[in-house]
Amino acid sequence: MNGGLREYSPSNFNVLFKNYTLLPYFAIYPGPNAWFPVPNKSILLIMGGGIAAYKSLELVRRLAERGIRSRAILTKAGAQFVTPLSVSALTGEKVYSDLFSLTDEAEMGHIQLSRSADLVVVAPATADLMAKMAGGLANDLASTTLLATDKKVLMAPAMNVRMWESPSVRRNRAILEKDGVLFVGPNEGEMACGEFGPGRMAEPHEIAAAIEQALGADGLLKGVTALVTAGPTREPVDPVRFLANHSSGKQGYAIAEALVAAGADTTLISGPVGLTAPPGVTLKRVTTAQEMLAACEAALPADVLVMAAAVADWRPDIAANSKIKKSVDRVVPLIKLVENPDILAILARGPRRPRLVIGFAAETDDVVQNAVAKRTRKGADWIIANDVSANEIGESVMGGDRNRIHLVSEAGIEDWPDMTKAEVGARLAARIAEKLKGAA
Q1: Which residues on neighbouring strands pair with residue 42, listed in sequence order?
Q2: pLDDT in tens, 285-298
Q3: Can you tell me whether residue 32 is helix, strand or coil?
């Protein structure tokens, strides 16, 4: 025993947990020469009770692949779903459990635990753990550690849909967010109890991306200048009508936020959207494609260009000075369209071309094939392709909070899993840092 904490020591052998073969920690941590987006970082993982605890084992493995070390607190309820030995074998660390004695004040193990890592992650974050932290309660090791930490806290909630939607849980989340606690998920889907809705814990790759984003605020892209475009453009027909599209700007804003969090000096050029600019960005608002091109050229030079805006391909040749009225004989007015400037191609082939040019391809058919052709045609380094056609229930990526993309580059095609737009932004920021470091 140490400092009143119950400890479990790692064992250097394989452990079989249900359908997972869990390797000892030295078998999953990469070699010393590997490069990581957030090197030399560690987390304290608090594992609450719930069937989703098995995902936390996979999370530890994914973090190890990224060079992020984990130390774990396993609650009494969490130990009903995963064993201390499984967690210990993956983390390569002692697993801490119940806080049953604090007689030895000289060691105060929960204080050490709360401040020994760069980030505290609660996964699964149960309604009980959220309530304890929101209320400042400290009656077990997990809640005491959360109360004593001086580090950022990231929570991945997991609970029944009715619990998640209850007024008390919503109130507790609002309190925690106001206190600066970060959240990832929950996702919507079928649950172990048979119900369907929000409450599923985010997938391990989503939590890993959120962890990288939280850890990357210390300067992953420090010294890098980035230019991001977002939202639609509006091409006026007359003073009350315009041509536009369904872009909400959420993905571009999420990318700009992730780049700022990673330390990049970021300029965001936004079409007309109803979003608040992320803290730390330099925001320039435009309306038309021509205005966006002019704003981009004025913002250069930059190291990175991310063209996430959905720029209108055409505009009316002449915009009427007054509202076009219906004629008495019901003749439909003819509107001649002309092509808008190809902003991505102009900047990618221009004299002040950024070091890394990233375009977007919002497609409804042959998504990857069209993106591959677009990369060559536009002269971009990368193309981020996504399917914006409506799904089986009529929802589109445009305007939504999730995205599933394909990154097309000179190295080939990366198929990224479905994730939130914020998580796409965090992962793209990490990939950008990796690319720029490799180029340097």
Answers
A1: 69
A2: 999 999 999 999 99
A3: coil
Number of domains in the chain: 2
Model confidence at 362: pLDDT above 90: no
Distance (Å, whole) CA 415 – CA 427: 12
Contact 220, 37 (CB under 8 A): yes
Cβ contacts of residue 66 below 8 Å, gap of 6+?
Answer: 36, 37, 38, 208, 212
Residues 106 and 15 placed together within one structural domain of the fold = yes
Strand-pair category, 95-99 with 5-8: antiparallel
**Domain enclosing residue 249, as ranges:** 220-439
Q: Are residues 241 and 180 in the same domain?
A: no
**Tokens standing for residue 98:** 């119940």
- Residues with catalytic annotation? 193
Indicate if 253 and 336 belong to the same structural domain. yes
Q: How far apart are CA 308 and CA 227, in angstroms?
A: 10
Residue 276: Cβ-neighbour burial (10 angstroms; 0-12, 13-18, 19+) = exposed
| Domain of residue 391, CATH code | 3.40.50.10300
In angstroms, the CA 146 to CA 153 distance is 8
Rounded-to-integer distance, Cα 98 and Cα 117, Å: 19
For residue 250, pLDDT beyond 90: yes
